[in-house]
Amino acid sequence: MVVAAPKGEAGAQWGDTWFAADLVDALVRAGHTARTVFRGGATSAARESDDVVLVLRGLRRVVPRRGAATWMLWVISHPELVAADEPAEYDATFVASEHWARASTGEFGTEVTPLLQATNPRRFTPDAAAEDSGERILFVGSTRGEFRPVVRDALAAGIDVSVYGVGWEEFLPSATIRGEFIPNSALPAAYAGAGVVLNDHWPDMARDGFLSNRLFDAAAAGSRVLSDRATGLADVFGNGIRTYEHAGDLASVLADPVAAFPPRAERLALADRIARDHSFDARAAVLIDRAYELRGQ
Fold it and tell me: Which of 93, 229, 239, 267 is deepest in the core (most CB within 10 A)?
């Protein structure tokens, strides 16, 4: 499995790295040999000895190295970077958006199959921490070079947010920045124990329905989640995740989270459904079936 992240410590801060790790584990549980290949090895000669190469398309394009391997593309983010001729280079293409899959099939001239992002319910579970035992309002993520909208709007509304991520010194007072990094192993407890988990999307990803992986993780942990709006969000999460349009709207929701969000029983029911329908095991099953089909097995 190829990811756009670099190898080593730098890659540990990329969400793609942990996404790939959970998917590799799911493939192994299904009885297959799988490993993560970082961007430096994407087109090395070693790929010719693989049976199947799955490229997790993020910020970088990978041109398949043709040989005996079956190449599959899964666009999990930044659809605006995918070139019109790119999917045709692969034996199968998946995209993490129902909306974009429908809209793009004709554009690319090849079948595009929707396959949403996922979570690992073995880790992201409501049992990871006691409810309301952690940060009151939590945001985990880097700045990505901008003042992230949900954090900006929360501060504009006078909401105290606990922020973990790199690059925030440019935008926030030091008291608001709790740390540069939450270890991936500690993230389930951080989400499960938070009063509210904040989420936002790149504008193009919200428009095109590429739902954030954070939504799946936090929902599986039974969290109260507040997000910007995104195409298809309600289709997947129903009323289990609250959305907002502007800072005033956000402030009214966060003024009384217990009243504004679904009760615990409803959030636990959503967590069960996300664990069942949107796990990496479920995604692995789809990928395995398609690989067998393509390879005539």
Answer: 93
Give one DSSP letter per residue of 12-61, joined into a string. Answer: GG-HHHHHHHHHHHHHHHTT-----B-GGGTTSGGGGG-SEEEEEESSS-
Whether 256 shows a pLDDT value over 70: the answer reads yes
- For the ranges 8-12, 107-111, 231-235, the lowest mean pLDDT is seen at 8-12
> Options 3.30.110.30, 3.40.30.10, 3.40.50.2000, 3.40.50.300; which CATH number does 126-277 get?
3.40.50.2000
pTM for the model: 0.93
Evaluate whether 195 touches 137 at the Cβ level (below 8 Å).
yes
Q: Which 3 state secondary structure label does DSSP give 259?
A: helix
Judge contact between 195 and 136, C-beta under 8 A.
Answer: yes
How far from the centroid of its chain's Cα atoms is residue 126's Cα?
18
